[in-house]
Amino acid sequence: AKDAGRDTIRFFNPEMQKAIESRIALETALRQALLRGELQLFYQPQIDQHGKRIGAEALLRWLHPNRGLIPPLDFIPLAEETGLIVPIGHWVVDTACAQLKEWETCATMRSLQLAVNVSARQFHQPDFVAQVRESLERSKANPARLKLELTESVVLENADSVIERMHQLRALGVSFSMDDFGTGYSSLSYLKRLPLDQLKIDKSFVRDITTDPNDAAIVRAILAMSRSLGIQVIAEGVETEEQQLFLLDNGCFAFQGYLFGKPSPIVDWRSQATQ
Ligand code: C2E
Ligand code: CA
Ligand code: CA
Ligand code: CA
C-alpha cells in the first residue's frame, strides 16, 4: 500500500503531468496538421553508378506554424501509436502519386521512380491495397514508377498474408524495397519468399563502412546474398566518396545520401534539374 501510494504521488508529479499534456497536445496538433495542410513531402535523390538520377525517396515533414520544421522521428512514433499513421500514410501515397503524375510533364523527371515509406500498421490495414489502387487511378500516375519501402517489422507476423498482399500490390504494377535492411529481426529465409525488387542497406552500416571491419563484412554479405537472389541493392546514408567507392567495389550500384543531395522540397529540386 505504501508503494502504491508512492506511485500515485509519482503519477501526479508536475513533470509527468506536463509530459502527458504535451503528448496530448502533440496528438491534437498532428490530427489538425493533416487537415490544415501542414504536412509536406521532401524528396531525396537516388543515383546510379554513373551519377545519374534514377529516383527519389519521399520523406515526410511537418511544417508546424510555431515550431517550424518537425522531423518525422519526432512525430511518426506517436502517429503509429495513435493510429494517425493510417490517414497520414494514405495522404503520403496519394501525394506521391500526384507528384509522379506531375513529373511526367518534365523531361528530366519523367523516368524517375518514387519510393514512399509504408509503416507496418498502414500496410496491415484491410483496405491498404484498395487505397493504393485508388491513389494510382485518381492520379493516373504510372504504377511502375511507385516503389513501396517496407521495413522488416511488416513481416514480423504472418508472412503468408504479407506475401499475398505484396502480390496483390505487384499486380497493380508497384514495386517493393526492404528498408533498413539488416537492422530488424526478420529471418533471412523470408527473403527469398518475399517478392522484393530491392534491398536498402541501412545507413547505420554505411556510416563506418571504411573503418569498421564488421560493418564492411556485413555489407559485403548483404551484397553477395542479394546478388545470388537477384535482388537489387541501394545504399542509404552515403556521405563520402570513400563510402561510395567501397560500395561500388563490392557491387552496389545505387546510392542515396548527403553526398548526392539532402531531402528538399520539390520546387528546389526541379529548378536544379532543369538548370
Ligand atoms: P528512413 O526511411 O530510413 O529514411 C532515411 C533517413 O536518413 C531520412 O531521415 C533521411 O533524411 C536521412 N538521410 C538521408 N541521407 C543521409 C545521409 O547521408 N546521412 C545521414 N546521417 N542521414 C541521411 P528523415 O527524413 O528524418 O526520416 C526518418 C525516418 O522517418 C525515415 O527513415 C522513415 O523511417 C520515417 N519516415 C519518413 N517519412 C515517412 C513517411 O512518409 N511514412 C512513414 N511511415 N515513415 C516515414
Ligand atoms: Ca525509407
Ligand atoms: Ca534507414
Ligand atoms: Ca526506417
UniProtKB/TrEMBL annotation:
Molecular functions per Gene Ontology: cyclic-guanylate-specific phosphodiesterase activity
A Gene Ontology biological process term: cellular response to nitric oxide
Q: Please state every residue range assigned to the domain named EAL.
A: 23-275
Q: Which keywords, in A-to-Z order, does the entry hold? A: c-di-GMP, Coiled coil
Its domain of life? Bacteria
Membrane-spanning parts: none
Name assigned to this protein: cyclic-guanylate-specific phosphodiesterase
Annotated source species: Imhoffiella purpurea
